[in-house]
Amino acid sequence: MSVGSLCHVARLRHLSLALHRQFLRARHLHNAYGEPETEGLDEEDGREGVHPGGYRLQYNPSSYYRPQHDPGASLSRLEMEEQCQSTVTSAFRQQSNRYSVSSSRRLSSTKNTLLDLAFNRGTGAKAERAPPYRTEPLTPDVKGDPRAFQTCRPEYSAMTLDLSQRPAPVHSKQAFFLLHKVTILKGSMEPVDVTGFLTKLSHLHPDQTPLVRGDTRFIMLLRYSVENLSHFSHAQLLKVLKSFVWLGLPPTHSMLGLYEAELGRRAGEMGLHQLLLAADLWRCLGRSVPQYLQCLYDCASLHLGQVGVPEIVQLLYVMGEGRHCPKELVHPLEQILMRHLDQLEPEEVGAVCLGLFKSQTALSEGSVNRLVDRAHLVVYEMSDFAMVNVMKLLRFSYLDHRAWLEVMAHEVPRRAPSMGVQGLMHVALACSSLHYRNERILLAVAERLPSLAPHCRSKDSGKLIWAFGTLGVLPSQCPNFYPSLIEALRQRADEFQRYPEHLLTGLLGLAFICQLPEDLVALALSPEFVSLATRSKQLDLKKDLFTLDGTVALELPHWTGPRLSRELREETTEILWRFAQKDVCQKVEVLEAEAVLRDLLGGEEFVSKRMILPHTRSIDLEVHLNPVGQPLPVTSVQTYPISSKDWTTSSGSSTQGWEKINTGVTLTEDLLTQLTNGRKTPLPPTQASQLPLLRRTEPDEGGGLFSVGVDLTDGLVGTLTKPPIRLAIQVTNRNHYCYRSPQLLGLHAMKRRQLKLTGYRVVELPHREWFPLLRRTHAEKLAYMHCKTPALF
User: Fold this and answer.
1) pTM attached to this predicted model
2) How far is CA 690 from CA 421, 686, 728, 761, in A?
3) How do residues 567-602 score in pLDDT, each as one tens digit?
4) Which of 13, 55, 153, 356 has its CA 20 to 30 A from that of 401?
5) What is the pLDDT of residue 68?
6) The pLDDT value given to residue 606
């Protein structure tokens, strides 16, 4: 026997012993209490059953029953499993049950009566209603079923489980008669017996299955199923797994790990439909099975000749739910998909798009275009859910399918009143990712959202605010949208402990449109939150904190709340600058603009390529001019605002970190008085300490500092007392703007606003003008830049 087989046998023995110990413990408790556990439900939904002997049995359905999960939920089950890990023994135990009373292997007539009372509701006994299992309403979502595509063709029935077709229910007496037979047959049961018992028990009404799962004899039956695991036929094994779905077995049940291993071992012997059915059953159970899925993918490459429309759609669905598609399968699956594309039904198109999105599978641009072409052709027959899935794929592919986007301008406003939070969020997020600013779409979403805001998760609120802020939708255009989502963020503040990125996402979206709720900003910049956010290993949130902190410094001059430490600011600045030096600083359009400006202004000392505002994460070409338009040398000094007072305002006051350029005699009030023959010419108080300088000239014979014939007029005095002109020259590209629009995207609009706030004149070299010149001669580039000179100087 191989080592692998020995390990497998050892695991079976270990689980069998654990089940046996659980059975003995249940029998011991029965002897101690003298009565079987009835979990007596007199009526539905959490009431106490009154035992004839006088004591009460607490009924707590959450002890052993999880409400049916959404088969299309996008959240990973790994997180749930990590929270619910248990030992082999405890997996079979009824968690949180206040009375660990288990039924006996023998049932007296009295006990049978009690069990019948438990199963058959409406006994007339007075009962107290316990608090409902869930007090909050479920988050509304797109109206539709993520598995709806499986009803498009009869062929899906061979590889999926139709959750809407539950088996006809059996009477509770029959169920307990079957459990009684388990105690008689015991270890003599054959695989066919185990399969038959589990199949018949799975026909119980869903409200009665928790009682069966808590019965010791059912635990015995599970033990015997494990002992017969290797003896089941493929069909029997799948039938048992299907029974577990209807019985509501918890996805973290330790025994299921053995079933996954057995199915993985058999994968090479099973047909394609059996492999896909097993994967679908695991999905229905809500269990993450990466090892089995890898076996499925390995075998799928051997069955590609059998893959038709239902097989390719179901396989992509499974890959999406498993969040993975092997690289070696992408190309053959793409070819099969394109071959059958015109046969896809509307819901199948949506399922394919969702599977590709969730598994992060990148098809060629041509294939994505063809897929969206098909979606565009059947869009009016699509459910909201399928339509949103197409938007997700476009967002992932960064593909602007113009015809689809145009039809969305009509479909989203029509459908928005019946759509839920997550569907609307994904529509807005896709528009944001594609830089597609369409007011018909956005205002329809904004009109619907306030009524749904109480249902928003922090994720929904943060991403909706980010999307609208990125596209520059102002509060005046949708008065209720931003306030309702800001309040939703406040209401979900407890979620920030686990997902700090959602608060920062929302606040940055608000910063783009100059809206900063100070209570949430204070929370985001508090030492505790900063420590939490910077500890995250999955996400680098330092840059988001840095952008928020810099915005607070400039746009909240009265701010006295928390700020980032100098060390964190300097560290993040250095990270951003190193990246910029390797990336944007090396782009041809930037290097060429820098070279032309140097030639035009007379040398490299007159142009500085740097991050003027590091927290905006991009560079500018900085130029300084004196009041008469002559270039001044620029020393590249990185600075960062400690507060708004450290920056120059538009009135021209000096800033911390700016170098003094000593070029001559300082123009003081006394000197001006002498030059104007005693007429007092006071200087503005903000300019008295730092003034422009007069260049010294060589005196001629009998001459002084100035020629005798020069009149110092009010205009000349005004010119002499003006601060230097500082220019931020920006080489933009189309990704700075909304799609086919002159509207700057949020981050770039915020940067331009803040540059003006700090005293810079922003000069743009538009990509539509500058990029075509990159292929022209240097003389033509100089001529273009010279034409910009009046605007610059």
Assistant:
1) 0.74
2) 55, 8, 22, 20
3) 999 999 999 999 999 999 999 999 999 999 999 998
4) 153
5) 40
6) 93
Nearest CA to 731 among 602, 548, 585, 632? Answer: 585
Residue-wise pLDDT tens digits, 359-381? 999 999 999 999 999 999 999 99
CA gap 397, 377 in Å, rounded: 20
| Greater pLDDT, 184 or 392 | 392
Question: How far is 192 from 237, CA to CA, in rounded Å?
Answer: 10
Angle at 617 between CA 615 and CA 620, to 5 degrees: 105
Are residues 216 and 102 in contact, defined by beta-carbon separation less than 8 angstroms?
yes
Greatest CA separation found in the chain?
A: 133
What single-letter DSSP state applies at residue 54?
S
Q: What is the mean pLDDT of the chain?
A: 77
**Contact between residue 49 and residue 40 where contact means Cβ atoms under 8 Å apart:** yes
Q: Six-digit token pair at 103? A: 């039924």
- Residue 369, both tokens: 């275009």
Q: b/e string for 432-454 if b means 16 or more Cβ within 10 A?
A: bbbbbbbeebbbbbbebbbebbe
- If we measure between CA atoms, which residue out of 386, 257, 323 comes closest to residue 77? 323
For 46-148, where are the E strands, in sequence order? 49-50, 56-57
Residues 533 and 531: their CA atoms lie apart, in Å, by 6
Q: Which residues contact 195 (CB under 8 A, 6 or more apart)?
A: 232, 236, 239, 240, 243
Element (H, E) at 467: helix 458-470
Nearest residue to 658 (alpha-carbon basis) of 619, 687, 624, 707 = 624
What tokens does 181 get? 């037979």
Find the radius of gyration of the CA atoms of the chain: 36
Token digits for 409?
């301008």
Cβ atoms of 175 and 201 within 8 Å: the answer is yes
Q: Please provide the distance, in angstroms rounded to a whole number, between the alpha carbons at the two ends of the chain.
A: 87
Average pLDDT over residues 305-318: 94
Distance in angstroms (rounded) separating the CA atoms of residues 168 and 177: 18
47: DSSP letter:
B
State how far the Cα of 19 lies from the Cα of 640, in Å rounded to an integer.
65
pLDDT of residue 669: 56
Higher-confidence residue: 520 or 693? 520
Q: How far is CA 464 from CA 137, 503, 534, in A?
A: 20, 12, 24
**497 — pLDDT class (breaks 50, 70, 90):** very high
How many Cα atoms occupy the beta-carbon half-sphere of 353 within 13 Å?
31
CB hemisphere CA count around 506 (13 angstroms): 31
Give which of 279, 283, 237, 236 is closest to 258, Cα–Cα.
237
User: In the chain, what are the helix, strand and coil shares in percent, each to the nearest 5?
Assistant: 60, 5, 35
pLDDT at 758 over 80: yes
